[in-house]
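User: Can you help me understand a structure? I only have the sequence.
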Amino acid sequence: MKSIFFLQLSNFLSGAANAVVMITIPWLVLEVTDSAAFAGLVVALSSIPSLLIAPFGGVIIHRLGSRFVSATADLMSTASVVAIPILALTGRLTGFTILIFALIGAVFDPLGYTARKTMIQATAEKANFNVDRLNGIHEGLLGTSWVIGPAIGAWLIAIFGASNSFWIAGSLFILAALAIVFVSKPKRTELSVSAKQENQLSLGFRRIWSDKYLRVLLFSVLILAAIYLPTESVVLPAYFESVARPIDLGLVISVLAGGSTLSAFAYGWIISRISGRNLVRIAFIGAALGTLVMSFLPPLSVMLLAALLLGLSWGPFMPYLTSKIQMRFDPAEHPMIFSAQTAVFYAAPPLGMVIVGFAVEEFGVSTAYLGIGVVITIVAVIAVLSKTLRDN
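Assistant: Let's start by predicting it. Here is the structure, written out as tokens:
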């Protein structure tokens, strides 16, 4: 049980540190450059290193070990964020230097995230703990960190200033790295003879592609992620800004995240009572209904209920996907497969941001949001009616 505690502690601390950095970087860029366009550019470019490094993560983790990669990723993230207040103290902090260190920090996020995920199954089995339950706890704590982290970041900015907030973020990364040291070293697993003869960089993608069920599932999620995620970062902020209701925006996002986190924690209990097929149906249908209702921009009370439905429906999906990968593939291949999954998820939002941003600019928030709701509903219906998903 000690290893489970410290693995999840590292998971939470690293997630919280990343959430603090996420809200503090654009704020600091605005302070230094007074350019909203440059702040947006920094945020957009910061996603590129993660997208590029994610496919290599599996091979790195398999060769160096998940504990080593997780700790090293958090320590390197510490170096990248602590460099910012040091530059501020020396008077060398500029928009360009912030961009450089934001890019450096983004390189290590997918490595640490994937390394911790590959330790779940071995840690649970060693402690004789239910793997499904631990998958839910893992995703729930990660979700909690991303609920609490931005609030911590805003508080730090208000109390200590934007640049000094990075000292705290760096401290959280260090604590996350230290926590991993207390996780029992997972037993090294060797790839099968046939897997060793394959190109390991693409092995994860090939395994997912060869599994029809996971292929359809991930392709559906990729489309949903590309379309839905920009609603939280583009559409909803644009709407609530236009009606001067920033507090309502915070409420909606908090209810979404809270519902998702709550049901993720309950995944172990949920999956013991309903089939995976029905869980997937609930996730897709709930996401479609919640988004469609919200797309009509109803009164706040209705929007909050729809956001809660969306969050509760979708929360168990990620731990379910993790469980399916653990069950269907050799543990030695998990680093490559989880890395491929991470790469797919990192690829979706940037493309969606561009498309949705253009749609909002060209057609307005109401029309763009309704279009998103309709597309998500169509994708969800097609996925739910798919023979592949029905038969698994």
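Now, to help you interpret it: The chain has two domains: 2-182, 204-390. The chain has 19 helices and no strands. Let me know which part you'd like to focus on.
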